Amino acid sequence: MTAAAILRIGCLDSVALSRFVDSRAPGHHIFMDASDRGLCALWPARKEYLQVEFDEEELQQIEKGNVIGADELSINIRELMRGVFAPVVWASKWSQAVPDYHTHIRFWIDKSSAVCWANRRSSRNPFAQMLLRLIALLDVQHNFYSSARHIAGCDNVMADAGSRVGVIRAALGDLFSHVVCLDTGQSPIEPKELWKLWELGSELEL
Question: Is 69 strand, coil or helix?
Answer without folding.
Answer: coil
